[in-house]
Amino acid sequence: MFDDEPRPKQRGTQYKVRLPDELHAWLKEMAEKHDRSMNYLIVKAVKQLKQQQEL
Known about the structure:
2 helices; 55% helix; 0% strand
């Protein structure tokens, strides 16, 4: 699912976000399962939402 994408270098603006505990736990589990960071998954989800909105 995520393994074929290169790992980007850290850059960009830092932004704190509050997540419900259950969403944080799920995100952490998904990140570990796919050997990715939680930040990577959040950025990927926001990019997908942006693409959907631009259609």
